[in-house]
Amino acid sequence: MTAQEIIQHLHLTPHPEGGYYRETYRATDTLTTAAGHTRSVSTAIYYLLENEDKSHFHRIKSDELWFFHQGQALEIILLTPGQPTRLTLGPDFAAGELPQAVIPAGVWFAAQVKHRPGYGLVSCTVAPGFDFADFELAERAALLREFPQAANVVEQFTKATQENT
């Protein structure tokens, strides 16, 4: 199947960070976060990046796990003190690609298809569950101030002017 066929078959829609997604699971059990917010215990989505699509730098207040399904490997970039950390999610374990990756709560991260053209289809689970109230899309100037050593990736994975969602 092509990326567009998968998008149609799985009923994916554009995601604010880039790419396409659809929520597939939201636990009925809830919990109260340390900040006093009620969240589902866990959520899951399908997520697809195609060709030049990017998951722009963003962060959430929960841990997120990414699971590779098919297509091209996805490169995930995490901004941490020092140089950015890069993980490759994909099927070629001999080349160091991983079938799953953990993005810790509160860490800025972005992603792209590593070898374009092509697409990568993954699932993401979030625990405690995802809520757009916990989602922050990066503002370029603020990230450049916080991570000046990563200016090249910050500029590559943020828009020149964008508002937080």
From TrEMBL:
Q: Which InterPro entries match?
A: Cupin_DUF985, RmlC-like_jellyroll, RmlC_Cupin_sf, YML079W-like
The taxonomy runs: Bacteria, Pseudomonadati, Bacteroidota, Cytophagia, Cytophagales
- Membrane-spanning residues where? none
Q: Using the record's annotation, list all stretches that form the DUF985 domain.
A: 4-138
- Fetch the PANTHER family from UniProt: DUF985 DOMAIN-CONTAINING PROTEIN, RMLC-LIKE JELLY ROLL FOLD PROTEIN
Q: What name does UniProt use for this protein?
A: Cupin domain-containing protein
Look up the domain of life of the source: Bacteria
Gene3D superfamilies documented for this protein: Jelly Rolls
